[in-house]
Amino acid sequence: MPAAIFQALAAAAFLLHLAFIAWVALGGAFAQRGRTVAGLHLASLAYALVIQIGPWPCPLTLAEQYFLRRAGHTPYQTGFLLHYLDRLIYPDVPESWLVALTVIVCAGNLGLHARAWKQRAAASAPPASTPGLDPHRPHQA
Asked: Residue ranges per domain, the chain?
C-alpha cells in the first residue's frame, strides 16, 4: 500500500482519538438526554480512567503509531496526551498532572451524571397523595 494511505489512516486515528477525548470530557453534559447516552458515557469514562491510570496503552495510540510507522515516519514513543496535548496545552507538565486532570474531569462528569439521575428519579416518582384520601378511590370528596 502507498505511504499516503497509511498517512491518511494515521490522521483518521488521530481524529478519532480527539473525538473520544472530547466525548469523555464533555459527554456528561448530555447525560440528561437519556439512559442510553448516559450509559455509553459512563462506560467511556471508566475506560478512559483505566487506560490513563493503568499500565495499558490506548488502542488508538497503538493504531496511530502503527500507521505512522507504515507511512515511513518515526512514531512518537509516549502516549497520545503527552505527545500532542503536552506540546500544545501543557508544556513541561509532568505526566502525573495529566493523570490528575483526567481524574478531575471524570469526577466532574460523574457529578453531572448524578444530577441527571436525580432529575430523572424525581420526574418518574409518583405524586404524593393527599392525606386522608384513599389513592385507590379517585372520586372522593
From this structure: 3-122
Whether the Cβ atoms of residue 63 and residue 80 lie closer than 8 Å to each other: no
The pLDDT of residue 8 is: 94
Residue 24 scores a pLDDT above 80: yes
The single-letter code of the amino acid at 30 is: F
Q: How many angstroms separate the CA atoms of 21 and 137, rounded?
A: 54
pTM as predicted: 0.65
Question: Of 69, 97, 98, 106, nearest to 81 (Cα)?
Answer: 98
- The three cell numbers of residue 7 are 498517512
Q: How far apart are CA 23 and CA 79, in angstroms?
A: 18
Residue-by-residue DSSP string for 53-109: HSSPPPHHHHHHHHHHHHTT----SS-HIIIIIHHHT-TT--HHHHHHHHHHHHHHH
> By the 8 A CB rule, do 61 and 80 touch?
yes
Residue 21's contacts (CB-CB under 8 Å, 6 or more residues apart) are: 81
